[in-house]
Amino acid sequence: MVVWDKPTLMPGARTEEERFFPLWFNPCGATALCLVASGLYTIPLVGIRSLVLATSGSGLALVVLGYVMTAGKRQREDQVWLSCAGLLNSIVLLLVLFDPGLLNPVWAMDVAVPTPDPNRMVVVDRDRPMDAGRLVAAEVWADAVSEAVVQHDVLLRIDEVKIGPLRDKGATAFLQIQYRIGNRNHGYRLEFDEFSANRPPVLTDEQGRGYKFVDHWTRKMGVGPPMYFEPLPPRTVLIPNTGHANYLLLFEAPRVPMPPMKLVLSATAWGRQGECRFRIVKEFVAPIPELPK
Description:
The chain is built from three helices and 16 strands. The protein folds into two domains: 16-109; 121-285, Immunoglobulin-like. The chain is α+β, with helices and mostly antiparallel strands. Strands 1, 2, 4, 5, 6, 10, 11, 13 and 16 form a nine-stranded antiparallel beta sheet that branches. Strands 3-15-14-8-9 form a five-stranded mixed beta sheet, with no helix packed on it. The protein is rod-shaped, with a radius of gyration of 37 Å.
């Protein structure tokens, strides 16, 4: 008859069931430490935030399991393993959740981009349209000579103001306001409903007297310089990405010399809310901005 010997316990083992783990070793704590170490190791190699979350979260779960398994027979060595593993996994987990830039600078940029207000309107220097500008308020008017109005990705500026007759219009003088509308967005075309009698621009002087809107002319491309404008029926124009369009507004002519005038253009023409307001103090032709040296 063959008699099998009982398996010999490893030195330091507590019971027969624990013969594979010596007294100084805690498998849950060791595995949790390996998990947090592997998660940290993958940061410069892979850089996947969710992977580090998974490893540190699993490590914490193993620490909890280790405390449950050693309940009633927990030794000092178990406490050291589980405490160290729990502390390291907790630190890594908190950093990944609340300050990921300390572990990987790229993760600090992995945040939701705030949605810009498409109706926010500012007045900027006409030669520096990317500046922050000042917010349009009740008494804020853009100086037509030196400033422009920006509404999110739409830019409006006045390029010329003069009083005089037009071809095919006889000797009658009109106040002619040449303006440009630009699309600063790189992602889509801007839909612009040209101004008309149904959506007229408003022109008044500082005493509140209004001047009749006469017509809205469109620049004819491929002709000029100078720019050539022609009367066309009102239409919806798609302004391409980073493109622009030029127009001419015709109003009843004021007296000469021209008093300070106020021009209001409704943002509903390009599907927004608000009003672009310009103050025109004289006839002028906007200079071409100088190139940086």
